[in-house]
Amino acid sequence: VQLVESGGGLVQPGGSLRLSCAASGFRVAEFEVAWYRQGSDNECDKIAHIEYDVRVRYYRHFEDGRFIISRDNAKNTVDLQMTSLRPEDTAVYYCAVNGGWPDDCTAPTNGDWGQGTLVTVSS
Question: What's the pLDDT score for residue 13?
Fold first, then answer.
């Protein structure tokens, strides 16, 4: 199982980015895949997940519509579209399957995780 995030970078406040999580070794359509982030507060925040039946759930602080999770079965990817970005969205963003609720995204105890992609929101 391997997950590789891409799409991070530097963006101005108010801008948009689309992150992609490319999976290998399993089909994203058959598992729950989630996006997380860890910023300067060092808290591992779960943003959203998408289930095998395409149902999605957004977690607290990420329900305002600025973050949209989606899946492309043909590409075997799970994407995170981010809009109206703010400086406080600066973080390393991770995707994971069966990732649970780790205290530290850099040291998860469950599931399979990607290496993360850095998003910096700054003017």
Answer: 98
